[in-house]
Every structure is written in C-alpha cells, then in structure tokens.
C-alpha cells in the first residue's frame, strides 16, 4: 500500500511539474519561431547561428530549440563563438543557452567574417588533405586565434588537417569531437614554424598509415 502511494505521489509530481518553454524555428533561416513546451529532459533554451563554407554564398543556418544542459556545452547566458578553417572547408558558430521562459527569442549575430591578421598552414583541397601534401596558407578570421595541425580518420582513410581554429574549441571536448570527430589527433598552437610543421606532418602521415 505504501509503495502504491509513493508511486502515485511521484507520478503526480512529474505530471504537475512546470516544463520550460522555448522558441523553436520552423525553417533553416528562422524567419518564423514559435514558443513550444519542452520535454522534461530539456532544461535550457538554445540559439545557434552557423555558417558553413567560405564563399559569398556560404550557407547560414539559424537554430532555436529546447536543449539539455549537456548538449548546450557553452556557459549559460554567454554569447559564445567558435570557428575552424581547414582551408578547403570552414565552419563558424555563435551560440547562447539560457534557462528562463522563452529566453531564446533574441537574435544572435552572424559569426565574425573579418580578417584578424593571423595566418596558418592549411590544405587547399580535400585531396591534398587525404594525400598529406598540404602547403597552402589560409588567412584566419573572427575568433580563429590559433593554428592547429594533426590527423583525422574516416573509415580506413587518414587525413592531414591544418588551419585556423578558435582556442576555446581546443579545450572543449564536446565541440572538438563534433568538428573533428572522435578519433582526431589534433594539436592546437604547436610552437614550430609554418614550413617546418608542414614538412614534419607530411613525413609523419605515411608512417602513421603504415602503423595502422
């Protein structure tokens, strides 16, 4: 009897708990957003503006939705920007999460596209990345404040990766894995020179392939 009463009380508390409400976009440009009731597992509202590609017609996507705190991974109520530029591919994001009713109504800025004066070694094409023959230079923009280098794997293929990245991405495991993949071996801010890092990684990649 006591067990039944406990179960009824628990169910009553769950059903009467007030769910958070957040705005949700109805299309990729978020030209229209509606307030929805979030699932119990979603405790924050999220807004994210993403730009993928470095050409004038780069795809801009705006997302507003309910989110769990784990999937938010950026500080609450803080507009956070991160970006990575591999030379042949670039993506940038601005995100804010908040935990009050319909708090994600406000618009977020598009990631900063302005040159910041820093340059890093990069791969001109995905073919160069796969072959490990990267000797191009890319101009960093916006929040890209550090160079990176390393390798990523996709199936049985290993790719050399070099370019510009936001320093905050390097220290955030969730964002790092989302951008580079779970098996990436990436070093941010390596102290060696641009020309030396390209030569060293170009020699190391064939050796890595032999080992695996």
Please characterize this protein's 3D structure.
With 212 residues, the protein is α+β, with helices and mostly antiparallel strands. The chain has helices spanning 2-16, 69-72, 126-131, 167-170, 173-180, 194-211; strands spanning 21-25, 33-37, 44-52, 59-67, 80-85, 90-98, 115-122, 136-141, 146-154, 157-165, 185-188. Strand 9 (146-154) and strand 10 form a beta hairpin. The longest helix has 18 residues, at 194-211.
Can you give keywords for this protein?
212 residues; alpha+beta; seven-stranded antiparallel sheet; two-stranded antiparallel sheet; disordered N terminus; disordered C terminus
Short recap of the structure:
The chain has 212 residues and is an alpha+beta fold. 26% of the residues lie in helices and 37% in strands. It has a seven-stranded antiparallel beta sheet.
């Amino acid at each position: 009897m006591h067990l039944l009463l406990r179960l009824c009380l628990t169910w009553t508390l769950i059903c009467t708990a007030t769910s958070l409400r957040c705005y949700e976009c109805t299309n990729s440009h978020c030209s229209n957003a509606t307030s929805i009731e979030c699932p119990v597992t979603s405790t924050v509202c999220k807004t994210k503006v993403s730009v993928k590609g470095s050409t004038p017609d780069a795809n801009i996507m705006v997302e507003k939705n309910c989110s769990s705190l784990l999937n938010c991974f950026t500080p609450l109520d803080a507009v956070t920007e991160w970006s990575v530029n591999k030379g042949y591919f670039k993506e940038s994001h601005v995100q804010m999460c908040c935990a009050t009713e319909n708090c994600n109504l406000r618009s977020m800025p598009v990631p900063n596209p302005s040159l910041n004066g820093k340059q890093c070694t990069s791969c001109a094409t995905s073919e160069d990345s796969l072959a490990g023959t990267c000797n191009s230079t890319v101009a960093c923009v916006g929040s890209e404040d550090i160079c990176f280098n390393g390798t990523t794997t996709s199936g049985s293929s290993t790719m050399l990766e070099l370019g510009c990245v936001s320093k905050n991405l390097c220290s955030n495991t969730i964002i790092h894995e989302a951008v580079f993949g779970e098996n990436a071996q990436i070093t941010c801010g390596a102290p060696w020179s641009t020309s030396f890092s390209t030569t060293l990684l170009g020699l190391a990649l064939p050796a890595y392939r032999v080992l695996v």
